[in-house]
UniProtKB/TrEMBL annotation:
Natural source organism: Dactylosporangium roseum
ATP-binding as UniProt keyword: yes
SUPFAM superfamilies to which the protein is assigned, alphabetical: P-loop containing nucleoside triphosphate hydrolases (SSF52540)
All copies of domain ABC transporter, residue ranges: 7-232
InterPro entries: AAA+_ATPase, ABC_transporter-like_ATP-bd, ABC_Transporter_VariousFunc, P-loop_NTPase
PROSITE patterns: ABC_TRANSPORTER_2
Keywords: ATP-binding, Nucleotide-binding, Transport
Protein name: ABC transporter ATP-binding protein
Amino acid sequence: METPHVLHAERLTKRYGRRAALTNCDLMIPRGHVVGLVGPNGAGKSTLLQLACGLIRPTSGTLSVLGSRPAANADHLARVGFVAQDTPVYASFSVADHLKMGAWLNSSWDPALANRRIAEVGLDPAQKAGRLSGGQRAQLAMTIAAAKRPELLIFDEPAAALDPLARRGFMHSLVEFVGELGASAVLSSHLLSDVEQVCDYLVVLCDSRIQVAGPVRELLASHHRIAGDPARIAGVEVIWAEHGRALARGHAAVPGAEPVALEELVLAYMSRAAVTGAVSRGSAAVAR
């Protein structure tokens, strides 16, 4: 029976020595979405994605991907495509060599898809990967990940170093691949413009914890900007307040409530996490 979730975490924790990269994270991501994973540098985004790919193991808690332990076996590995932050390719290999390697490593490899996409983005099969531009390397890495026809594509800041034109091309290809494969995708990015462009599901990760998660439309519909003192309004949760205005969550009818943009919502949760995290760390330091 097919699991309804591409990723399911319960109290997921990952520590590196005394530093917590993830702390008691609970998360259920349903199938059929392009998920934007956002948060500041050092929030734990890469750690979460590396756990999902089976590259590292959790300190405690559980994580399942497509209903199984990450990288449980060769069949499970074939169901997940991963593009790391620096879109790694082998500099001395040609584009054609990368496709041959992909075919050798993956029994579900789709050569027609790989060759077609390489032609569509204008890559010369004989070109060495070390001579490609950043955008071309990103397109090659994404093609290799997608040509194994995975059920889940995972992207860890794949477009961070690309210029705006190359980034737009990469995001366009990402959407096309997801549609063609019928796959789900998780995109980690600190660029909210990328998330707004392609994602319909949002996860905000700050200070090693999940702050909020859900379909973008539902999150925007359930958050409002409110003037005055929100403490007087029943049925709302204040996420962040400053300068006499607050961003609050709740479906209660609030006089004068205004809609919020995605960037405003994300920044409110990040600001709250920064303050609560600093208070927690200060209390821990005093206790020691």
